[in-house]
């Protein structure tokens, strides 16, 4: 859209809107078609991320039980698993679907209430609007 953007994290409605955290528009009857499309695309991207993490944890099940690992080693362990996982995926190393049985996603507790509006960054709405325009220009998908 003619403006360079930084990387952003994807959040849900409980996160404050920041220029580095994209969150969906609040679901209500006032959303425009373009805002609904943005929310849909955000949900799709989030599901891709969840699936990638599920495959990572299934292939490297040590990540499921890192509680016996020192905190200093943990970042290196996670990074090593990510690198090895990407190498396996890039070289079409077969993924055994049975691995998924041991790595089912667990629901972690999440905040129930949206972040207070005071925590939101006004500039972030411009970022979300740019992304909205971009998704609209890309068409369906």
From TrEMBL:
InterPro entries: HARBI1-like, HARBI1_dom. It is found in: Nucleus. Signal peptide: none annotated. Its main location: nucleus. Its cofactor is a divalent metal cation. GO terms for molecular function: hydrolase activity; metal ion binding; nuclease activity. Transmembrane segments: none annotated. Pfam families: DDE_Tnp_4. The keyword Hydrolase applies. Residues 5-86 form the DDE Tnp4 domain. GO terms for cellular component: nucleus. Keywords: Hydrolase, Metal-binding, Nuclease, Nucleus. It comes from the Eukaryota. Belongs to the HARBI1 family. This is ALP1 protein. It comes from Tyrannus savana (Fork-tailed flycatcher). The lineage of its organism: Eukaryota, Metazoa, Chordata, Craniata, Vertebrata. The gene is Alp1.
